[in-house]
Every structure is written in structure tokens, then in C-alpha cells.
Design goal:
Elements lengths: L8 H9 L12 E10 L9 E10 L4 E5 L6 H9 L6 E6 L2 E2 L5 H7 E4 L11 H6 L14 H13 L15 H14 L4 E5 L7 H18 L2 E6 L2 H7 L2 E6 L2 E6 L1 H4 L2 H8 L3 E5 L5 E5 L12
Parallel strand pairs: 3-8, 3-9, 6-7, 7-8
Antiparallel strand pairs: 1-2, 1-4, 4-5, 9-10, 11-12
Helix pairs in contact: 1-5, 5-6, 6-7
């Protein structure tokens, strides 16, 4: 695959969406129904951590933020949603199918996960890295097809990174790298995008750019996007729905304005805050002087 490969943009977009992204509607795509989990050192000992019964739903085109301080259970919930963990009780359904019961190949075709860190096992160019997202759709011992190349390039175009196609991954800035990692996830042609603290190592400008891309992808292409974060204002600005967690328990779910109220945020993050509702109806949170600290709270 080369930057000079002639691929019409409309063709790339069509291949990326074909057979995967349906028309928007009110149907529930992701349903978390009283799902719980416990990390047990062995059956005779008390659990190291327990995620209490959790429920929420998400539809195509929605961006859901799972919000909470460190060690609140955000990543555990994300693993339950992805099918990497099976619930102790309850269930997690993607289009009516239990995510934990999907075989690995089918799961990779329907669910794309972007971890906090994506280590580079060997040097690769951007286009090689993004093509890894096509493995779930290919056969073993097989080179990429023409369709794979078109889809990978279309994924880069959707995140605004097509100009990076011939760059080496280890030469990218943090923001550029996160866009390319997202493009690899899109190349899987998933229904559900799961991201664990994707803006953790980015500066403020890159954080906002990345969330703008996620918001646009969800709205235009009907992905269901779930983002784990402790960034209050990013969740407030970009999420359709917020799931607020503390110590393994979901305290509230709903719109940012309904969930992100001063009293409960101060309780969860152990910090003094002010919360103002802007003209858009979305809250804006300010951490008051001297209250930052141990809960992993970001301005």
C-alpha cells in the first residue's frame, strides 16, 4: 500500500461502511443489564474488587462516557462490555447477542477496543499498522486484499490522518498516533468502539481534537462509542450519556447535565468544584484552587 495508490475517496468510504453501519434509529445496540463482576484470589477468600450490578443502554450514534476517579471500576466495566470478562451475574448484549459468548473472530469484527497504551512490537509504517485491523476479516496466511487496502485508507481518511500514511509509527506525535490507532480500530468495521482513557497522555488541544473526531464518527457513521475517562469537562462537552462510578458502583446514568451536579461530583472526586450550565445546556466544571489531588481529577 502506497500513498500514491489511486483510491477514490468515495469508494473508500463506501467500503468502510458497507454491510456494517445501518441507518440511525431508536434501536438499542448495547444493553448492559444488571452486570456484575468480582476479582477473586480464590473461592475461599473475599474478593479483591467487586463491580456491583450495572445497567445502561446505548444506541447507534451515541457517545457514552464512563466517568469516575481511579479504581472506581471503569476499566472492569469496559472489559465486561468488550466480552474479555464474563459477568458474574446479569448480561451484556450487543444487538441481542452476549458479548462474552461471541467467538474471538466474531467479537473482533463487531467490537474494536482502543487501550491506554498500544505498544509497537516492531517498526511499522502507518499503513501497515492500520491494516492490522483487517486481520479479523481475513484468512490465515493471506496477504491483504484490494478491499482491505481501500478500507484501511478510508479509515485513515475518516480520522483525518491519510496524510500520515507513509510515516513511521514511532515518529508520530501523541495526537497523531492516537488518530492512527483509532483508524486501525475503524478498519475492523465494528459496531461498537470502546476506548480506555484515550486522551490520557495528550495535551489539552489534542484531547479536544480527538474527542471531536469521536463525536463526528459516532454521529455521521452510527458507531456506538464508549469512552472511559476521568476528564470531567471532556465528558460534559462530548458525551450523549454519562455513567458516573465510584468504588465499583454506578451512582448515576443519564445526560451530562443530569449526572454532573456539584454535590455528587464533589463526593465522588473529593474536591471542591463549581458547576455552571452553559448556553448549550452542558455543564462546565471548574476545580477550585487547592482542591486537586489524590482522586485523579483533571482540570
Amino acid at each position: 500500500m502506497s500513498a500514491s495508490t489511486p483510491i477514490p475517496p468515495s469508494s473508500a468510504a463506501a467500503h468502510l461502511a458497507a454491510g456494517v453501519l445501518g441507518a440511525p434509529g431508536n434501536e438499542v445496540r448495547l444493553s448492559v443489564e444488571q452486570a456484575s463482576y468480582a476479582y477473586l484470589p480464590n473461592p475461599s477468600q473475599a474478593p479483591l474488587f467487586t463491580l456491583e450490578a450495572t445497567s445502561f443502554q446505548a444506541r447507534p450514534g451515541e457517545l457514552v462516557a464512563i466517568l469516575g476517579p481511579n479504581a472506581s471500576g471503569k476499566s472492569t466495566l469496559l472489559k465486561l462490555i468488550s466480552g474479555a470478562l464474563r459477568p458474574l451475574s446479569g448480561r451484556v448484549l450487543l444487538n441481542g447477542f452476549s458479548t462474552g459468548s461471541l467467538d474471538p473472530r466474531t467479537r473482533a469484527q463487531r467490537i474494536a477496543v482502543v487501550q491506554q497504551e498500544s505498544r509497537l512490537l516492531f517498526p511499522s509504517r502507518v499503513w501497515e499498522f492500520v491494516l492490522q485491523g483487517r486481520h479479523a476479516h481475513g484468512r490465515s496466511l493471506r496477504f491483504e486484499s484490494a478491499d482491505d487496502i481501500i478500507i484501511a485508507r478510508g479509515a485513515l481518511a475518516r480520522v483525518g490522518a491519510e496524510h500520515l500514511i507513509e510515516r513511521w509509527m514511532d515518529q508520530l506525535s501523541g495526537g497523531e498516533k492516537q488518530r492512527v490507532i483509532l483508524a486501525r480500530a475503524l478498519a475492523q468495521q465494528p459496531l461498537l468502539l470502546l476506548l480506555d482513557e484515550p486522551t490520557l497522555h495528550l495535551d489539552v488541544g489534542a484531547q479536544m481534537d480527538f474527542l471531536e473526531v469521536l463525536r463526528r464518527l459516532a454521529a455521521q457513521n452510527h458507531y456506538t462509542v464508549v469512552v472511559v475517562t476521568h476528564e470531567l469537562n471532556l465528558a460534559a462537552e462530548y458525551a450523549d450519556q454519562v455513567v458516573l462510578m465510584q468504588r465499583g458502583k454506578v451512582l448515576r446514568t443519564g445526560s451530562a447535565a443530569a449526572v454532573m451536579q456539584r454535590e455528587i461530583l464533589e463526593q465522588v472526586f473529593q474536591a471542591s468544584l463549581s458547576v455552571e450550565i452553559g448556553a448549550s445546556g452542558r455543564p462546565r466544571i471548574t476545580v477550585l484552587s487547592g482542591s486537586l489531588g489524590k482522586q485523579g481529577l483533571s482540570r
